[in-house]
Amino acid sequence: MKKFVLFVLCVVLSAVVMTGCGEESPFVQKEYVASASEVSEININVRDRKIEVLSSDDGDIRIVYSENDTYAYDIAVSDDGTLTMTCKNDKDIADYFGLKPSDADLTVSLCVPDGMVERLTLCTTNEDITLEPLSVAESADIETNGGNIEFESLDVGSGISLTAKNGDIDGIIVGGWDDFSMDVDIKKGECNLPTEKTGGEKTLSVSENNGDVNIEFVG
């Protein structure tokens, strides 16, 4: 009798799960636009999303993303000029049954005018962060747990912080070697930077766990 009851419960649970999966709404691509003159800082903190930073030539900041009833975002500009983007939902029941959205649906594209933003903070998990050539007036803070960080040409006014776990850091920083003081912490990986370096007017902080670091300087 107990085995029969357990069997019935399993059947009912399976039916509920399959019904829920079948009713999941489709993804819709959306775009959030803000004037760069109204934004001094950008802070994107998401989970399981790839972040790509692209150039913008029209003076506006754009975030292109996809969402549905399950995967949605909170996006807003505060009174002090900080543009933030966060996930409303950290986990979907579909994740537990191996049902994943497409790569395109889980990509956040940020378009930024060159040199118009003072501070840039990007954080994600289990995905990569990539940046096209970009100038930031003050600082850039980039972090991923479970992905790579790649940047083509990053120019900052005061400092760069790069943090990765189970992924590589690879990129080009605008400026000379002597322009930067460095604080580098590497575990289980190769790195072409010294552990510590003093004397620069700008700062470079690198933390890498289980990955390689290859950073070049172009003055």
UniProtKB/TrEMBL annotation:
Signal peptide positions on this chain: 1-19
Can you give the residue ranges of the DUF4097 domain? 120-215
List the keywords (alphabetical).
Answer: Signal
- InterPro entries from the UniProt entry: Toastrack_DUF4097
Indicate yes or no for the key word Signal: yes
Q: What is this protein called?
A: DUF4097 family beta strand repeat protein
